[in-house]
């Protein structure tokens, strides 16, 4: 089954003013939708984070991929490596991953697997070895935030909205407001574990928010805190000690494998990461140092779904727990995460997702339901989702109109506070 064409569409998705260690989310999150068209008349889909670097590289790659067989994923990977392997490809210090190659592998692999699944009339989960579970657990993902809906409304609210769509617009800067956000999100989606994005407010407030969540949801609800590596080792030890027995895991409180390893010797809470161990090349040092207990995979930056399956095996071999990281995303990414989450033999924790924060959608039928905190593997061959072309065009027009080309949370924060600067370590 040969590739005859590839459509690459940049889109902008409304995103509320969420806070993190790197600043503030812009009113739009950028994504790229890839469609691989084949000579069988089958089209495969994928979705990855939007950036000019990734968009330009995909555009350059297109002519090299035309004529390739979607089943020959090793050949395709070699081709991508030959073309882009030499480029400077750093992860960066931001909470999100900015590498090129791994995102290219992922974008092309997922769309090829979607084609293969459609050709064989089998879901992608079957191409990954079949189901280990039928439905995949997700965690609530709370953010400190300013008031506002994002998108065209920016920091304004849609006064007609109800339920979670209303609640997601509320300011959340204090422990009580975080508890309100958690209650609204858990009521709407039934999440049974809760992650709080930290690194945005002073540590004392984030710690008090965790205590308030424990009081509101009870000691049996798993809680996680993710300061995105902005805390000093001293701060992470101080608050870690207070959160022993309270947190399910402590996600990237400090920066780098060495400090994570030092922290793990001082604090009795499992450490998780999507920042210090983010590639196969990082694994030897991770194992040597003992930098984390849990690796949060992400098929977008671990190089695809099959690479994430390989990572799962390595995690099992070396006694690492496994779960998944997320960024702002739509339904194609959600479908890919669910197929992977259903296939993974050793899934230890509910997965992260930003999905409730995005009101827009690009797939037919609207948003994929999250019920009782679980997502069922979509029906149908391949990823089991199809593109809503009208929505795609609408979101592409938003991309053209919004003027954003790259994610830059520092610049967004400076619109609110001109003196604000990203720091590698803030507290
Ligand atoms: O969306 O602000 C955000 C998150 O901070 C995201 O960029 C991170 O990559 O969710 C992520 C994380 O777990 O670090
Ligand atoms: Mg994280």
Automatic annotation (TrEMBL):
<dbReference type="InterPro" id="IPR036849">
    <property type="entry name" value="Enolase-like_C_sf"/>
</dbReference>
<dbReference type="InterPro" id="IPR034593">
    <property type="entry name" value="DgoD-like"/>
</dbReference>
<dbReference type="GO" id="GO:0016854">
    <property type="term" value="F:racemase and epimerase activity"/>
</dbReference>
<dbReference type="InterPro" id="IPR013342">
    <property type="entry name" value="Mandelate_racemase_C"/>
</dbReference>
<feature type="domain" description="Mandelate racemase/muconate lactonizing enzyme C-terminal">
    <location>
        <begin position="175"/>
        <end position="270"/>
    </location>
</feature>
<dbReference type="InterPro" id="IPR029017">
    <property type="entry name" value="Enolase-like_N"/>
</dbReference>
<dbReference type="InterPro" id="IPR029065">
    <property type="entry name" value="Enolase_C-like"/>
</dbReference>
<dbReference type="InterPro" id="IPR013341">
    <property type="entry name" value="Mandelate_racemase_N_dom"/>
</dbReference>
<dbReference type="GO" id="GO:0008872">
    <property type="term" value="F:glucarate dehydratase activity"/>
</dbReference>
<protein>
    <recommendedName>
        <fullName>glucarate dehydratase</fullName>
        <ecNumber>4.2.1.40</ecNumber>
    </recommendedName>
</protein>
<dbReference type="Pfam" id="PF13378">
    <property type="entry name" value="MR_MLE_C"/>
</dbReference>
<dbReference type="Pfam" id="PF02746">
    <property type="entry name" value="MR_MLE_N"/>
</dbReference>
<comment type="pathway">
    <text>Carbohydrate acid metabolism; D-glucarate degradation; 2,5-dioxopentanoate from D-glucarate: step 1/2.</text>
</comment>
